[in-house]
Write a structure and sequence with these properties.
With 174 residues, the chain is α+β, with helices and mostly antiparallel strands. Helix content is 24%, strand content 33%. The strands form 5 sheets. A 4-stranded antiparallel β-sheet has the order 8-14-13-12. The protein has a 3-stranded antiparallel β-sheet with strand order 1-4-5, with no helix packed on it. The protein has a 3-stranded antiparallel β-sheet with strand order 9-10-11, with no helix packed on it.
Length: 174
């Protein structure tokens, strides 16, 4: 009987402490808000409703990450929320349309040089000389045009390609 009374007493004490701690947290009054979300000018719909409290909007992390195209990962031990961009899947270059510049360097009579201190590539074939200004970034797919000759140059995944039909038009071997 003493054990039952002791157990009930301990249970009531734990319940009282929990209630007392919860009471010190206070209450929050927030308002549901209907917002129009635009990402890069395009309207997006959220599945959940944001809250507004004391003039500040509180948005669900997962919903915002989904709108932005990010992956969300939560680590319980460290209480960390991580947002990561998914890996971009790059389509392979169509080799029927493009030839790698490094392959052209193996063709007799074609000379490719990079101008020191400039973002330029020079392609020489006989008396013809074509100058390409490289894009600032080689991370994304970029297209540049030679001067003279209007040869399209594609920079993708760190590799430089030239347009085969442009080379044919100018009588360049490829």
């Amino acid at each position: 009987m003493k054990k039952i009374i002791l157990g009930l007493t301990i249970g009531m004490m734990i319940g009282s402490v929990t209630t007392a701690v919860a009471a010190t947290q206070g209450e929050v009054t927030a308002v549901f808000a209907n917002f129009i979300f635009k990402i890069n000018g395009q309207e997006k719909k959220m599945d959940t409703t944001p809250l507004v409290y004391d003039g500040t909007s509180y948005l669900p992390v997962r919903a915002i990450a989904d709108l932005l195209g990010y992956n969300v990962k939560y680590t319980t031990e460290s209480r960390t929320i991580a947002l990561d961009q998914p890996a971009v899947k790059s389509e392979p270059v169509d080799t029927a349309k493009w030839v790698a510049l490094r392959e052209l360097t193996l063709v007799p009579g074609i000379k490719v040089t990079i101008s020191p201190g400039t973002p330029q590539i020079n392609l020489e074939y006989g008396k013809q000389n074509f100058i390409f200004n490289l894009p600032n970034s080689t991370e994304d797919e970029k297209i540049a045009i030679s001067n003279p000759g209007n040869i399209q140059m594609l920079v993708k995944d760190g590799t430089t390609y030239l347009n085969r039909s442009d080379l044919e038009r100018l009588g360049l071997p490829h």
